[in-house]
Structures are given as structure tokens and as C-alpha cells.
Amino acid sequence: YHGYNDIEGRWKSKNPHRTEYVWQVIDTVGGSDQHGSHLRKTNEKKKPPPGNMEIIKGSAYGAFSRAFIEFVHTSPIAKELLDWSRDTYSPDEHYWATLNYNTHLHTPGGYKAKSDPANWTARFVNWGESNCYGRIIRGICVFGTVDLPTLFNRRELFANKFHLNADPIAYQCLEELIINKSKLDLPLNDATFYRRMPFLLPS
């Protein structure tokens, strides 16, 4: 991707209650001395995010350039956003996207347009929106062997998720396919699709 990041981000879809209020971790004690915790939203409003940033809804997963990772580790503004996010709900779902889509930060490999990209290739997830032939756990399809034809035709780099104790054959078959493609040095089936990813096109 010539140094660009493939990070999911949505300007239009937002969850303000996740980032505009302080969230607390509440420890709970269940039966048989079982300990757990849950998040609780408080009525305390948070200060605005640092650096005049707009919080962007995204995903915990992405394909990051090396320069972006170095920016995350060394940039003061990236560290400020991380500290600011500590008492938000699920900060991993806005941290990467916020750094990537706020153009005034000049983030390495960042997205330049002010519109929602149509495609991301970092990860494929079946949220139960289409047929799942494995099993659905917490709203996510754990892929099974019958899902393999669908997975073969996906363009994403990773698929989420597999459980070896649920259907190890599905995982092993997909792993074998990837190994065989690597050994045979097969070309991409649709290289044009990747060349036309929105972050590679002029904004």
C-alpha cells in the first residue's frame, strides 16, 4: 500500500456516549468467590480530546505501516490521545482511527479525504449478517468448514475468527491454501481491487 494504512474509520457513524463521558471499571464478586468486572458510565463529562482531534469510530484491528507504528510510539500527541482515552468505553475502537483520519496531525500513511471509505481489507468478520455455518459466539461467527468457499473468495488479509476446538479442519484448510499460494508465488486474483483502495487514490 505504498506506506498507507488500512484502518477502518467512519465519520458518519459515532457513539458519543462512549467518549464524551467518563467510564469506570467496577469490580464484582460472583458466587463461589468468582471475581469479575464490568464498565459503568458516569455522569462526568470528559474534557475535549487533545490536539483539536475529532474522535472517529473505527476498529481494534487494522493494517499499519511501520512509520505509523513509530508515530504511535514516539509522537507526544499520540501518547496524549492514549492517556485521554483510558477512561472511555472500548478505546481500541477509536484510537487508531482517530490518529489515522485527523489530517491536521499529518500521521504517516493517514487518510486524506473527509468521507467514509467504502472498503477495508485488514479483517473480515461475519457479524451474523449472512449465513454462518460454524457457530455464533457473542454475535460473531466462528467459522466452520462449510464457510470455506466464502473465505476463499474474500479479499481481506485476515479472517476473524476461528476456534481450534470448534472446527480445526476449517483453520487447517485455510492455512494450507495460504502456504500453497506462497510456495507457488501465485499472482493476486484481482490486483486492481487493491490498487483502487480509497486511501491510495487522490483525495
TrEMBL record:
It is a single-pass type II membrane protein. Its main location: membrane. GO terms for cellular component: membrane. Residues 32-51 are annotated as: Disordered. Pathway: Protein modification; protein glycosylation. Belongs to the glycosyltransferase 14 family. This is Uncharacterized protein.
